[in-house]
Amino acid sequence: MRRNLSKSLLVAALMVVLVLSVSGVSFAEYPDRDVRVIIPWSVGGMTDVLTRPITNWLEDYYGEAFVVENKPGGGGVVGSMLIENAKNDGYTIGTTSMSTVSAKYVSPMYPEMENVELIAQVITIPATVTVNADSPWQTIEEYIEYAKNNPEEIKNSNSGTGASAHIYAAAFENEAGIELNHVPYPGYAEAITALVGGHVDSTNIPLPDVAPQVEAGNLRMLAIAADERHPDFPNVPTLKEKGINLSIGNYSGFVAPKGTPKERIEILENGIKKAMEDPEIRNFLVEAGFQPIYKNAEEFQVTVDEAEARLDYLVNELGVELIDD
């Protein structure tokens, strides 16, 4: 009887091994070789700067190389589609940002978030409400009150009609119940220069770009569009604190091709979580102007869903025409 039982258990075990082998699941510890990391942007760009310290940490943690490959082109479309079409074995991952979501509005060919598996979000780059240091508005409440009483009088600089800063401004208007006078410039630098020079009254350009002028005393940041305050500017409130339900700006996180085994996604998710708990990583990101914020795959999905819904509303309901900046 005992011998028959042993035979039955052996047969069952062999069947499990056979099923796992057919399904492509390996018993080898993952990862056990190099992991390719595709960044859809150039060397030295925002995503490149924040990704490399994290992949270096993961190399030390797993004992395998995480090989970064920059694949710029098409406003992030080229690299994002390479991630989508890569083999889904866990040995190719990549990065994503809000540009992946907005690509369908500006490019004839574009990636789809449904074609990747989310791993984890690592940073957010919040939009701001920033005014000249000599502005009469000391608080976000004063700014909004004035804007409500004087529609379209506040001149608000952006990085081009339909570009990112214009998107942030349109979303801010919608949530705050105000109307601004949008003044487009070729890019962030020109829009900030105009604000410093007093040619416009405010801007919604993200925190890393306005921070140097705020720290120099030329600009005043009234609020940020984030879920929590930024560690470098603890006295600047979030819009949500003031009753304006808006968290907008850019974000960045890791993704893998659709169908990558869940177990491997979870292993990577856990490693990235540990990396984001490292004080050196967090300090580096804060000093670079980013807001470290770890979100697991499920939480990251909420970020992506909100970005998609907001862009859809701005384009299809408010008629904002996006451009690639």
From TrEMBL:
Keywords of this entry: Receptor, Signal
Signal peptide: 1-28
Highest taxon above the source species: Bacteria
A Pfam cross-reference name: TctC
Family, as annotated: Belongs to the UPF0065 (bug) family.
Protein name: Tripartite-type tricarboxylate transporter, receptor component TctC
Lineage of source species: Bacteria, Bacillati, Bacillota, Clostridia, Halanaerobiales
